[in-house]
Amino acid sequence: MATTTRRRAKPAENAAPEPTQEELLHYYKEMLLIRRFEEKAGQLYGMGLIGGFCHLYIGQEAVVVGMQAAQLPGDSVITSYRDHGHMLACGMEAKGVMAELTGRAGGYSKGKGGSMHMFSREKNFYGGHGIVGAQTPIGTGLAFAHKYKKDGCIDVCYLGDGAVNQGQVYESFNMAALWKLPVIYVIENNKYAMGTSQQRASAGELYLRGSAYGIPGKQVNGMDVLEVKKAADEAVAYVRGGNGPMILEMKTYRYRGHSMSDPAKYRTKEEVNKMRSEYDCIDHLKSLLFTKGYADEESLKVIDRDVKAVVTEAADFATNSPEPDASELWTDILVEA
Amino acid sequence: MPIDILMPALSPTMTEGKLAKWVKKEGDTIKAGDVIAEIETDKATMEVEAVDEGTLAKILVPEGTENVAVNTAIALLAGEGESASDVSAAKAPAAAEAPKAEAPKEEAKPAAAPAAPAVKAPVAPPPSDEDRFFKNTQTMTVREALRDAMAEEMRKDGSVFVMGEEVAEYQGAYKVTQGLLQEFGPDRVIDTPITEHGFAGLAVGAAFGGLRPVVEFMTFNFSMQAIDHIINSAAKTLYMSGGQMGCPIVFRGPNGAAARVAAQHSQEYSSWYAHIPGLKVVSPYSAADAKGLLKAAIRDPNPVVFLENEILYGHSFEVPTDPDFIIPIGRAKIERAGTDVTITAFSLQVGMALAAADKLAEQGISAEVINLRSIRPLDVHTIVESVKKTNRLVSVEEGWPFAGIGAEMSAVMMEHAFDYLDAPVVRVHGKDVPMPYAANLEKLALPQVDDVVTAAKAVLYR
């Protein structure tokens, strides 16, 4: 465990119980849902039903599914603009997310936010933010609110390997450490900040970026949902225990371009293919399920069909939901006092 | 049912492209995520991945075809249990029925949006009974009034807290938060590091999380470090969330020129923030304004930018003693009634306008002075009603003229009072230069009483 301080309480490293069949099947279904959802979103984008920017999460599913599995109801989640997977993992309905992507009245933001700006107070998902890094102080503020209200909850704040070079991230680290705020910063390092590789943009190791503030950091294989879950369990216990923030750097990979219109010429096809064929989080879990005798081709086909039905229903809803009424142009600008 | 594979749009602006290459052949098995073809757009060559599984039954558009329109069926995919020959026989290439709904067509645009509120007649300001509170008053400074407003709201609502640089142990850089730490403790009166971008964002997150932060900027000059969170995070999120994510927060602190602190520390921000839908912008003049408006701002469910003035902090005014005294945001105050010319001003410039009105009275000119108090929403109704009477308007502000509050006043007159004007609007404002340090130049850069007098006489052709 690569903690960067010895003086602080160390995150608990108790031997975690083996994941049950039920848990593994749940992770499988959740990751598959995100992947199939994103593939469908890519297709709808291709059909012109989704406009603007659309950043797909394909390849990174293990990160959010493993993190979410370690959280408790009431914990808040916030991320940047590659956010569809986070919303599904938080339990937001695929229909509402997809309908927001298509800019329809049935979307989570009534069609007024789009892919990058969706929220659900009910599910404690606080966005969906389009400005790289801006979610970091906001997530830190959600953690501040948890501490202020003494509600026992924590915030999980996702940021990318691009966002870690924004100054406001360090302003947040400083205050979170100073005030021992209950926040886990999950750096989803998919190796490329749009088209700029980590090597070309970031000096040093990302999980050590909190070390000057005494924030422990850990590097995690983000392509393996069980490793993510194990690290998440430790971090959640540490942070919920009142020890202040923690950083988890998830080494992950996105298979698609930065956004739908990115031809991804900054990396080789071989690199992408190698990640897909050798490190895919869903394939990996699938073989584990087979090895353990927890599933066979037939039982996974049932899950596949269920997931496909959810995604198809979401796409139907998202294409049939009406566009927002013209009167919506003028609503939600201010809360009526 | 066989599935049409459609020519995809691969950027926000693509309408057609070249089908450069088929990576899969007819008869190939396809899994979701497989690359099936390559397409050239105007910008790049992109790969097309399959979404559905099956067998590539028939290629409808051969590779090398140019100008293939988005959403043209380019191939047919046979599903499980279907054979390629079934598909070819059963389905004519043109019958594209798989996508149930089409992309919204250009011509299917929504009907003309409802008229913007701007072209409607000015709405009457929110009702106020503030006058009745002035029966019992006490003299206090603007500084004390602001402190009392915060203290009273903090006593009333446990979710209200104050944060900023030097607000707690130092008692406020300008002593506005004096005594709050002693009464409310360090959990609710929070000294921050010098980290405006960070604490503004943190406070927005706290507001999303159910608290009511009062954020002090030591001066509003430093709010430029934080402006992304004020605008992109605090002001816009309610709209972007379809009404879910209200942000009850106050950003307050001294605004505009103090004295002899030069360009970076002497800037007036009202027009910057008033430009933004989703923000309220308030700028008090008197101690009563300060108290009544700050209480309203803290109770408001929206982000409020509260622009104070360092020079006014030490000025004393009569303030109602009734703890229920509050001034609704959006209501201007006629500080001095008059008949010949209307002078609008806010913050320190209200004092300038009142002094000018005294001088004008000596010359037989009756000026009506309107203290705007609220910049956004602007009390257009009160201003227009005044101009209907005086037929002349002078706008006074400390800030720069270009796209400033005076420019907005002129537009308001065009839209709502054109037929009542007997003279063009005249703007009195800070000179269009960065604030100089030298005492003589600084004085030249700022509006003076005589500038207001000259402007008032100009609109009266005297």
Automatic annotation (TrEMBL), chain A:
The keyword Oxidoreductase applies. Residues 1-20 are annotated as: Disordered. It catalyses: N(6)-[(R)-lipoyl]-L-lysyl-[protein] + pyruvate + H(+) = N(6)-[(R)-S(8)-acetyldihydrolipoyl]-L-lysyl-[protein] + CO2. InterPro entries: DH_E1 (IPR001017), PDH_E1_Alpha_Subunit (IPR050642), Pyrv_DH_E1_asu_subgrp-y (IPR017597), THDP-binding (IPR029061). It is an enzyme of class 1 (oxidoreductase). Its cofactor is thiamine diphosphate. GO terms for molecular function: pyruvate dehydrogenase (acetyl-transferring) activity. GO terms for biological process: pyruvate decarboxylation to acetyl-CoA. The keyword 4Fe-4S does not apply. SUPFAM superfamilies: Thiamin diphosphate-binding fold (THDP-binding). Its EC number is 1.2.4.1. Residues 30-326 form the Dehydrogenase E1 component domain. Pfam families: E1_dh. Keywords: Oxidoreductase, Pyruvate, Thiamine pyrophosphate. The pyruvate dehydrogenase complex catalyzes the overall conversion of pyruvate to acetyl-CoA and CO(2). It contains multiple copies of three enzymatic components: pyruvate dehydrogenase (E1), dihydrolipoamide acetyltransferase (E2) and lipoamide dehydrogenase (E3). Heterodimer of an alpha and a beta chain. This is Pyruvate dehydrogenase E1 component subunit alpha.
From TrEMBL, chain B:
It catalyses: N(6)-[(R)-lipoyl]-L-lysyl-[protein] + pyruvate + H(+) = N(6)-[(R)-S(8)-acetyldihydrolipoyl]-L-lysyl-[protein] + CO2. Residues 99-109 have a biased composition (Basic and acidic residues). SMART domains: Transket_pyr (SM00861). Residues 88-133 are annotated as: Disordered. One of its GO terms (molecular function) is pyruvate dehydrogenase (acetyl-transferring) activity. One of its GO terms (biological process) is pyruvate decarboxylation to acetyl-CoA. Residues 89-98, 110-122 have a biased composition (Low complexity). Heterodimer of an alpha and a beta chain. This is Pyruvate dehydrogenase E1 component subunit beta. It comes from Nitrospirillum amazonense. The lineage of its organism: Bacteria, Pseudomonadati, Pseudomonadota, Alphaproteobacteria, Rhodospirillales.
